[in-house]
Structures are given as structure tokens and as C-alpha cells.
Specification:
The protein is of the alpha/beta class and about 240 residues long. The chain has two domains: about 110 residues, 5'-nuclease (Rossmann fold, 3-Layer(aba) Sandwich); about 70 residues, Nucleotidyltransferase, domain 5, CATH 3.30.420.
Length: about 240
Amino acid sequence: MVDLSPRELSLPASPCRVAVLVDGDNVPFAQMAQLEAFAERKGEIVIRQVFGDFSRNPGWANDTCYFHIHCTTTAGKNRADMYLILAAMELAYRNQAAHFIVVSDDADFEPLIAHLRLNGFGAERIGKVKPPPVLENMAKEASAAKVKSAPKPLGSLSKTDMEIRDAILAAGETKRVAVQRLGSLMGQKRISAKSTGSANWSKYLAKHSNLYRLEGQANARTVLWLGSTPAPHTAP
């Protein structure tokens, strides 16, 4: 005999509907592939919106996946934040998403996250992808080394370096002078190597290798000026 009594149907559970709301003034488009991979673990992304002044963030110009809400910063730097919050509240009111992911490093969105959770929605804020500490430290060290090795611009020369430069350039067109001769010239100006914190002029010059190059040995050592030559003064 065939059993015709009604039975409960076992329907597959619907995936969680996810809304991704991006602070475009805070997060570059280049990082969205990694951030979206995280969002997809929460369910099906049904809403993608980005808020920001896109004239200042050209990386978002070629994006076609997100609905762009342009918020010019001339009307206030927090305008994009306000539009994002209003959009999240409207989507929640209309029950168009069950889980909200706000992409921003701005902690000012935490009250919005708390409010959504209080009303039964899943909600979280995720920030920009940051490099591992080891890579970040290597980048900082490389940047510091680049700054350290860069020649000083003319306007940032100390008085001592300007006096040394003038003494070397006065010696002739080769931009070179004997270190002993330089010591005598600096003595005439009442400037000693010890006043700079160095035991002698050779050690001072060696510490400022971005400005000077020492050549030769011992008493025959010369110094070459590596910086730019100041423009001649023209009388009015």
C-alpha cells in the first residue's frame, strides 16, 4: 500500500545573504580581491557598494562589480562615512542582507556594527590587508636607508658643510682639495673638527659620504665635493 501521508520536505538551506560596504576613501581597490575572498566565506555576496570621492581615488575608476556612491570631500571629509551608515541601515530595514561586512580601517564604524548585531544581523568590520611584520620592517629599513643615503639638498646644508664646500670650490675647478689644506682653511674660519664631534676632518668627511669623497692615503689624502655648485650671485 502506498503511503500518501504528507511528509516534511528536506530543502537545502539558503546561503546567508552578505552585503559588502566599502569605505573607498580608506581602502584601495587593489586589495579588494583578498577582502572579497574573506567575505565569500560568510555566504553569498548579494550587495556590493563603495562610498568615496573617486576623483581622489582613481584606483576604483575601472571597477565594474561595485555600485559607486560618489561623495565629494569638498562637502565634508566624513560624507562617505555617513552615506555608508545610511545605506547599511536602509538595507537592514528592508531585510535585504543578513550579514554586513564594512571594509574600513576607521573605528568610527564600530557603533554601526554593534547596532546591527543588536538587531539580529551578522556584522563585522575588516580593514586593509597589511604585510606580515617581517616584510613591513624590511620595507621600513629600506626606506630609512634610502633617506639616509640620499644627498642633502642645498638648502639643508649645515653652516660647517657650507664653509667646507666654499673652501673646496675656491681651490679650483676640480672640486678637490688636500685634507690638510682644508684643515688650515677651516682653522682660519675658527672652525675645528672637534667642534663637530669628530676627532679630525678626515673622520668628519667620511661620515658625510653623501657630500664628500676621500681619495688617497695619509698625508696625501684629498677630498672631493660631491654636492651641487651654488649659482653665482648676481648684483641687482
